[in-house]
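Collaborator request log, item 7. Partner lab (contact: R.S.) asked for a structural prediction of Nucleoside phosphorylase domain-containing protein to inform their binding assays.
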Amino acid sequence: MKRFRESEGHATSKRQKNSYETTLSSQHVDHYTVACFCAIHEELAAARDMLDEFHQCPPNVPTDDPNHYTLGSIKGYGIIITSLPEDGYGACNASLVAANMKRSFPRIRVNLIVGIGGGVPNKADIRLGDIVVGTRVMQYDFGKTVEDGKSERTAIPRTYDHLIGTTLTSLRSKHDRNPTRVPSILQQKLGKYPDTLRTDVPDLKVSQTGGQDTQHTVEIHYGAIASGNQVIKHGVARDKLAEELDVICFEMEAAGLMGYLPCLPTRGICDYSHSHKTNEWQRYAALNAAAYTREFIEELRVTREQVALVSNPQAQQSTLQERRKQLLDLLRFDHIDYRRLTIKKHHSKTRQWFLTHPDYKRWLDPAGLKENNGFIWMNGKPGTGKSTIMKFAYLEMKRSTRQAGEDAVTASFFFNARGEYLERSTIGMYRSLLLQLFEGYRDLQVVLDDPEVIPSSQKDCPSLVALKDIFWNAVCAPGHRGFTCFVDALDECDKQQVRDMVDYFEDLTEHSTDQNIPFRICFSSRHYPYIVPRYGIRVILEDQSGHSKDLENYIKSRLHILDSALIEELQLTLLSKAAGVFMWVVLVVDIVNKEYQRGGQALRRRIAEIPGDLSELFRDILTRDTDNMDQLLICIRWILFAEWPLQPVEFHLATERMKSFVIGSSKGLAEVTKSKTPTVQFIHESVRDFLIKDKGLHQAWPELESGWQSAAHEDLKQCCDLYLNYSSVVEFSSNLIAEPKPISRSKHRAEVSEKYPFLEYASRHILDHSNAAVERVPQD
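Returned to partner:
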């Protein structure tokens, strides 16, 4: 069906088109830089009356945009006017209209709300027909129920952006010397239609005290506006809210719009939000607000680029695509998915239970979205296997949606405490999730075009605040398409960053659920005593029967013992001592197999000696024998304090040992990752916690002094220094410098990496280790 866009005429005013109006052919969507939002038909009619000319709807407005637009211009500015559905006023409908408009008209620079509102007569001398300009908007019906059933408002004040603020200051300064042009604008636009300008309606405020004033001059009041989803028609309730929030006007759309984009609300006062509320003043009040809005638009100072007609849409689109590609490239960073790729694949007989778990199914059930806001959080002890489950669930969801042909995107981020800053920070998480979302839904890249979020002059990656705004806008963009995120290992990120992130996602999931947007988030972490989610589903991993069955299956399949009765006995013992910790089971099964291969006579005694706590198990592994302790210490130091995770060949040269040394001399606490670029790391982050937080290093090496970290860096510095002074390395470097022909950087790097793989690390980080060592160890 062909979509309709109003291009001329005025259905509600029942009159012919004004002689000063002209209808032009359609312009490109990028021509329109100012948007006006209206709620009811009287407001829309008044806003249309202010246009100098009308335009036909551009052909490149998306066909799935349900909004109705009136397009035109005022003093050369491309103006777009849109309204809410009939009887569909309120914050939720307003935000949906704004989202569709923003998608269809990406160059909108200024957003204005034009219409009517209810005044607060006791706050100022506000008369019917006066204009209230909202310098701040408070949502009065947004909050939570606290103790004793009391309501606590949690909404934050909303305000306009910098351009609107400076324009408002300029216009107010003019009004300090000269009266507003609202009457003259109305006379100019509607002088031929005197019925439209009638003001012979009793002033309801004054009539309450017995008087009447129909000659009142329109006044402009600047102050806070209260916005909510319910009509205020009670004087006592009005006054109580007005006093509490310090507002002078009530309305129903600004909170929804300003939660999505910064706006300036302008309201003509048509009643006093009490039981005598009528519609008689709506038309006149709406016209006054519209006239003020025109006066404001004429005061705007927007750049030529933002106002000029687009003469070459194809070139403009090409530039836009290049800019988006540039921004997407800025979101990328090295090792963006390194942690996920290095998580070992789950055992073939484990993890399947999670997909059929009632809580997981409830999280995915669309009918339960309102109940849990699409929020689930899996908690577990260190080493229980949370990351393995998260990787399994993420890959299974991607596979199932792809096979089903669903229009949905699944993204993931796995925090990595052992990685570089972006791998263990929320700014890296937002960058990764955004990149996956934009690559999955390419049309959502339009949110990158907003100059309010990312200025066109910006050449580096957006800030954390901007990334959060972009993520919110992208998730809440119209279309109601599915987006699911798996975020693992929150405990490997800074605590304050995690608090802020959890608050952000709770607000986002609450908002997206209200808008019927199928956005879901799955977190996993160790038990957090200081973060308590407001809502959502909690899954305690070690308490799940399916998890216990996984441990049982792993023990059965990995114990290399032929005696079935002995296996049953050992299985019960190991499950009891494991307390749900998968890492403990993996390590102990290996110990049991080795002990059984030696003869197994003392097997039961050895199992009884194994501590049940994971940290104590690490201590037992380190201290049970004292073989190769020097090798073990240098191995641990390199893994703990290397400036980046070393590749096996670098590690071999740094320690003068082969790959087998990594596993052998670390006593099984380190491993070589199975990734495209393998590196050496601890088998689990809990090993690092044991060595440092639980003082495992000092228990294994009591001779370590308080400045052991500085001493460790001194040893690593000496390793780098020795390597750099090898005769072959010195000779190679000298020949490279003396090379008469210029050599490309890439060729240079490839040659160096091949011949001397540890040279780059040693040359780049010898000073880092030296600086870290200087605190305790004197430098020669």
